[in-house]
Write a structure and sequence with these properties.
D-Maltodextrin-Binding Protein, domain 2, 5-stranded mixed β-sheet, single chain, about 375 residues
Length: about 375
Amino acid sequence: MKMRAFLRRSHARKLSERRETGAVATLGPVRVARRLLAVVLGFCVSAVVSGAVVHAAEQPLAKVRIGDTVSFAHLGVYVGIQKGIFQKHGIEIERVVMPGGSKVLTTLLSGDIDIAYLAAVSALQAQFQNRPVKIVGASHIMEIYSLLGRNDLKGTITKPADLKDRTVGITAPGSGSWAFANLLARAGSLDANRDIKIVPVGGMMTLISALKSNRVDTVTLWEPGTTMALEEGVGYSVIDLQNPVQHEQFIGSSESLVEVIAAQEDFIAGHRDTLRKFFAAQNEAYAWIHQAPIEEVAQTVAPLVGNPNMEILQKALKRMIPGVPKTALVDEKMYTTTMKRMVDTGLFQSEQPFAKAVDNSVGDAR
């Protein structure tokens, strides 16, 4: 025990002496250098990481003005807006809603919007008029239109030929609904200018009101308007291109390039990076639509279509989702088939070559 006490006192005395001479506090030069380097590197890494986070947070979103008509043919952009997918890719969307594709095209040509969601026929009309417009993506690849008749005419108008001397309500000349009316006239061996009266009415809700008030005999509608009108008993279905059998009967194919995304050539040339981000978001939205429960899709898009009735929206979505493309990239074969049908219908005198009509450089962005 005495020996242990002696050793403890001796150790304490030596330690005290070392403290006085600074021996304990002093590190070798190599160890000092290593510790200083570690501290400096740690500070630099922290500064770089925090700086990158701040820089990313400060990056402004690229603002893109889009124009569309309320339609489930534009589900991709609706989901992209509502789920924050565009913002995730660095895009801020300003949406302008219009009553028909013709108005959307006019607004695009005036420069008041950057990107248009509209019928392929509307975009092609601009090209045939030598306007600097290109199709840059696909929005929907199955026909969307239905022909609804007044309830008191049920049994009287049952096929395209029965439209002779009847009125057909559309949004406006040059729109997709106008093209559908012309398709029906040809299918019924009728002259669209002489045998039927095509009446410009306005947007989806105005068309439903026109049918309900007997202003017109029939109307061309699309979802969710078709399901809304039928569920409310406003009219009855005469022709339904969303029915796969009728789609094949009237279109001759299970697919059709019916709704597209278009932009002016100067915007395409000057905003390539923005367009890549835009279509990366658009394609992510398409993927989400195809994997999400239909109830969630309905809840997501309801605020943008102005109808909170989930039952109606889900019925309409079940009809429309099969036509949502996997990617916005425009299929050349589908385009060529659609273009040929437009010429056969009498909408155009000649075909527009794919390379002239479409800029496919960004449609498959991820």
